[in-house]
Structures are given as structure tokens and as C-alpha cells.
Design a protein that fits this description.
The structure is a homotetramer. By secondary structure, the first copy, chain A, is α+β, with helices and mostly antiparallel strands. Chain A has one domain: Roll (Thiol Ester Dehydrase, Chain A). Chain A contains three helices and eight strands. In chain A, the strands form two sheets. A six-stranded antiparallel sheet of chain A has the order 1-2-6-7-8-5, covered by helices on one side. The first copy, chain A, has a two-stranded antiparallel ribbon with strand order 3-4. The two termini of chain A are 15 Å apart. Chains A and D meet through strand 8 of A and strand 8 of D. Strand 5 of chain A pairs antiparallel with strand 5 of chain B, so a sheet runs across the interface.
């Protein structure tokens, strides 16, 4: 499948977030990869978001997925206006390990008004996803030319 | 519709959370209501979870909905084992006002293995929901007798 | 909550469907109610969509919910262009009875580009929903003035 | 990722459906592939489920995805009791072409009580999905030994 080109790279995303979303910039996260149609985001393991039993909480997983989706939109649409999440669907499949959590986010539709992304969350070193998610972002008028 | 009885009240929930989920206890939240089939949870407005433009972020809204769902399960099943979220679906409809955010959570199914809840989030004083959500919790075997 | 006005009534919907969607017109269904913000649609019980055990199938329930959502959009936006479903989320809670199935569909957001509806399906005479659903429709440009 | 073994093959599924689900057997569909963790189902193109403009309707797509999910469960759990869909989430991304529609269904979780599957629907010969879906099936007690 032909992947959409990256129009805003990892360094540009970092600078944009540092300037406009200082709170997101403080999340313990790191961009591992930005390539056409895809962003991989890493949540650095700390015991801060832990539930009893040592697992990473649902809200922390949502934050990771939502941030990955935002970076996926930035990477492929650019910062031409604030886009917003319109829907999110998550299935929590397994408990994450006490390790870094990776979110592999891919574009499944890059439309004029809507961007749909698919995310899989993995504990580092594991190959079965702990959580799968789908999110839709709505773009402001003019943010993007017709596909 | 006949509503399931409350088996674990607001004070019991607060004590249970304080003891077992100290991090959740530090969320700026308050239980407004626990009644058969329903829990209302309030997120106290601060500017901590704000996005540019002054709105309460998606992750903060997810945290509120997930916490409300957890309390809804505790209220109607009790603390007999740790239940876990299996799926969550959210539609973000409008931007929250800079005000307390209320989550009105209702049981739509209280099964032997699964509990399904429906949540509506409102900015205080508004009557149109900012976000609607559905969540499913899986109960451990024996947590609850057959419905 | 202030409900959006009906701009296209039950008779107009029936005529529009008969003319443009003859296959939908043959579904065994009937419009029970169209009022501001709400449409109630009835699926007439037959044993055609039955699964073993006499229950109405998931696909038949989806067809009912999707048709109700379409009529909800028609009722509040009018037929100014073909809108399309962008997402659907369903939770199947209980088995329907061998009886007419009612879908109570309500507008939760009527935006310029997106309409979000919430549906509850009930077996006639029962007060616990068998299925709950949320659907989003995307409107073509110009179908509706800004809300 | 280690895939779960097939315990009930394509011929067994066909016989089981013909005997127990004669209505499903009449759907214009064909099993293209059953392999560990995966089922590919084909909907044979006819103009029966068409919407204006020649596209395959949402309800037909749901029927295909739901049938593929059922076969995925049969293939990996066997027919030891009737399982039921508990939730379905679909994102409709593009209009299907007037061609056969393929549903590629994969197991993402095969638990003791729940099976979660991920589906992508493609028009034959195209490589961009027209629809993505996630479904959960609940298994009756004893249908499957602990994973």
C-alpha cells in the first residue's frame, strides 16, 4: 500500500511539542521512528503510572496512544491548525510488563477532513500486543489539500 | 429498568482506593453520587491537564471515565478481586469548558463475567455532553454470583 | 438539552427511501416516531434473520441500527447529499426476544461535518436494552449550515 | 508472534455451518484461507447489497466481518458451544469497488473467556482497506481450556 509521505519530521515534532504542548513534552516518552505512514513512540518505564501488581495503567496507555496518534497526524499533515480526536476505541488484551511500552501507530486513512490511525502497544521485547487501538482525528478546514 | 443494588458505598470506595490505589486517590476527583446502577464522579478543575486553548485533554477525560467505570464496578460488585478494563470506546463531541467535569456512569449490563457501563461527561452547568463513552470490565471468576 | 428541529418528517423519509433506496424499503421495518433529536424504528419480527435458539442475528441488529442512524440524519439534515457512516460501535448485551425489535436513536452531536448518534435496541415490551450502539455519519460539504 | 493452531478446518466449518446455520450458508461467501491465527473470507460480488452509486452496503460489510469472526473462532476454538459477539467496532474508510470483497481476519487474543479478532476488508485487487473492524467473542464456560 502506498504510504503517505512525511511532511513534518521527528525533530520538528519535538520542537513543536516543546513550544506548544509543554505538558506533553514532560511525558516520559521518546520518538523512536517516523517514516511514511508510521510513527513509533516509546513510553519510558517508571513506576509512576503503575496499578497494583506492577502493570501500566489504562489511562497511561491511552495517553501513549493519543500522543502517538497526534504525532502521526503532525508527521503527515503538519502543524497547520489544531486537529482534535473525535473517537477512540481500545481493546486491552494483556497486562503490560514492567518495561518500556512501545506504540506502533499507522495511518489507515488520510482524508481531507479525517485521519484514521491504528495503534498496537507492545511491552519492549514482546511480540504480542498488550493493547490495540483505533483513533480518528478531525482536521480543521484547509489543514490539508484533498488527497 | 430494575437497577442493580449498591453493595459497596461511596465511603467504602474512598477507603478502598486510598488503601489500594494511592495514585488514583491523588487524582483531583470527588464522588458526587452512588445509587443503584449509577455513579457520578467529578473532576475538580485545575489547569494541570489543559491543552492549548484551555480545554481539558483527552487523556484526562479518559482517566475520569476509566475511574468512574472502576467505581461503578466496585459499587455494584464489591472489591472481591481486581477487575480489568477489556475495551473502551469514546466519542469526543465538544470541547469541555474550563470548569469541573462530571462523569455520569450507568450500568447497562451486570453479567457474571462482564460489566458494561455507559458514561456521559458534562462540563458543570452544561447540559450537552462533551464526551460519551462505553467501557467493558471483565470480572475474575467467582467475583460475582450469576445475575 | 435543546434538541435539533426535524427538517424532514416520517412521510418524507418513507418517500425518499422508496425512491432512492428500494432495497432498504423492503426491510421489514416501520418508523414509529420522528421528533426533535430522535427517531424510533421498529423491525417487524419474522423468523428470517434468526440464529439457532430463535434470536435475531447481529447483522440484522446492525442493519436496524444503521437504518435508524440514516433516518436520524435524514430527519435532522435532510436529503441534501448522501452522507456515509464513518464508524460504528456496538455492544451486544442480551439476546433479543422473538418479538419486534425497536431501535431508539438519538442525536448526541449535530455538527457541520459529523453527526453522532446513540442507539438503544429493545425487544418490544422489555425495558433492558439488548444492544447499545454509537454511530458517526460524515456529511458532504454544504449539506448543512454551521450549527 | 506465535499463532494459535487451527483445530477446526475449512471443510469442518462448511459442514458445521450448512447443518447448524443454513441461512448463513446461503450468504454468497466462500472461505479462501484458514491458517493458524487467520481466516480469509470472500464475499462474492452481486448487486444485491448495493447502495446507490454501486457500493457494497455497511450492513453487508458487517455481515461479512461478523461471519469471518465467527469462522475465526470456530477455526481456533472448535464448535464446543455457541459463542456470541459481545462488541464490534468498525471504521468505514473508503467505498468498496464493485468487486468481490475480502475479509482478512486475525486473532489478536485467544483467551479462556474472550476471543478478540481484527479484520480488514479489501476490494479484490486493491491494497488499501475499505473497512477495519475489531470484534470480541465471549466463549461459554468450558469451551476452551486455559490458554
Amino acid at each position: 500500500m502506498a504510504q503517505p509521505p512525511v511532511v513534518f519530521g521527528a525533530d520538528q515534532i519535538r520542537e513543536f511539542i516543546a513550544e506548544h504542548f509543554p505538558q506533553a513534552a514532560r511525558f516520559p516518552h521518546r520518538i523512536d521512528l517516523v517514516e511514511p505512514g508510521r510513527v513509533v513512540l516509546r513510553w519510558l518505564y517508571t513506576d509512576k503510572g503503575l496499578r497494583p501488581g506492577g502493570t501500566i495503567s489504562g489511562p497511561t496507555q491511552f495517553t501513549l496512544a493519543d500522543t502517538a496518534m497526534f504525532y502521526l497526524v503532525l508527521a503527515h499533515v503538519g502543524p497547520a491548525g489544531l486537529s482534535v480526536t473525535t473517537d477512540a476505541n481500545l481493546h486491552f488484551l494483556r497486562k503490560p510488563k514492567p518495561a518500556d511500552l512501545l506504540c506502533d501507530a499507522r495511518v489507515v486513512k488520510l482524508g481531507k477532513h479525517l485521519v484514521v490511525g491504528e495503534m498496537k502497544l507492545f511491552s519492549e521485547g514482546e511480540d504480542e500486543p498488550v493493547t490495540i487501538a483505533t483513533m480518528t482525528y478531525s482536521l480543521p478546514p484547509g489543514a490539508r489539500r484533498a488527497p
